[in-house]
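Example 3.2
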Amino acid sequence: MGIKKPVIAVDIMGGDFGPPVVLPGALAAARSSNIDLLLVGRKEAIELELKQHDCSGVNFEIVHAAEVALMNEQPSDILRRKKDASIQICCRLVKEAKADGFVSAGHSGASVACGMFIIGRVPGVERPALATIIPTEKNPAILLDVGANVDCKAHHLFQFGLMAHPFAQDLLDISSPRIGLLSIGEEEGKGNNLVKESYDLFKLAKNINFVGNVEGRDLFTGDVDVIVSDGFVGNVALKLSEGLAGSLARVLKREIFSSTVTKLGAWLSKSAFKRFSRIVDYAEYGGAPLLGLQNIAIVCHGKSNIKAITNATIMAANYVRKGTNQRLTEAISANEELSRYSKAIKH
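Structure, written as C-alpha cells:
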C-alpha cells in the first residue's frame, strides 16, 4: 500500500500579489513533489487564473472563500467577523483533517490567530512561534520567534527551543542541531532576567543539544543551528539583517558601476554574485513554519514570488511526510515537568 500523498491547503488570495503568483507557485510544488492541493479563495478568481496554466498531472480542488483578510485589519477582528476569509477556511480544512497543513502569504497575524484558535496548539504549548530560516557562512540556520510573541516568559523560550529541534533535524538534515539562546554575551549569567531564567531551563532539558548563549554578531557564522529569542528581539534582529543585506547590496552595486575597471571585475565575478544572491534570497526557503500547532502551518512573506510559494508548499509537504509535528509533540511531552515548573515561578 502506497504512502498517502500530503494534502496542502493554499491561501490563494494571500500576499501582495494574490492568485497570479500564489496559484502557479502551488501548482509547481504539486507537480514536482507529488502533492494534492486545496486551492482556497474566490472561486471565480481561481478559475480565471487556472486558464493561464497547464494543470495536467496536478490533483486539486477549489474551495470557495468569499472573503479576504486585509492587512489593515486586526487579527482578532478577522477571527471573529470574517468566517469566510480564505485563511480561516484553510485552518478549518486542517482542523477537519481534510488537509494536512496550510500555506499562506497573507495576513501573518491572522494566520497565527486562526492557527491557534481553529487548528489548536500541541498539548503543553502555550504559544506557537514563527521560525525563519537565515543564511550563514556555513549552512542555513533557524531563528525563532520572529514576531508571533513580543512578550515572553522563560518557559515560552524554552518551548521554542524544544519545538525547533525536530524542525531543524528535518530542514537542515542534522541529527543533533546546536541550539543557542540570543543574549548580550556568551557567558552563562549574561543577559536580562528572561534570558537567565531560560538558560537555566535549557541546561536541564532532555534530548536537545543546548550550546549556551549566542551574541548578535554570531547569528551568521553558522556555529549554531537554532537561535532562540522572544518575538520582539527576534523580529528586530530579522528586520535589521534584511535591511543591512539590502543596503550592502545597493552600496556594492553603486561601487561596481562607478568605473570601467570595477565593471569588468563584476563581469568576471558574475557567477559568484549569482550564487551569493541565491544564498540570501528568502524565496529559497519558502516561508516561516508556525511551530506549536497540531498540524503544519507555513507563513510566507507578503511579497513572496512564485518560487517562494513553491518552496513553502514543498516544505509543508515534506514536514507532513517526515512526521515532524509528531516528534515536536514528543519533545514537549518529554520536558513537560520543566515547563510546568517554570510556569509556577512568579516572574
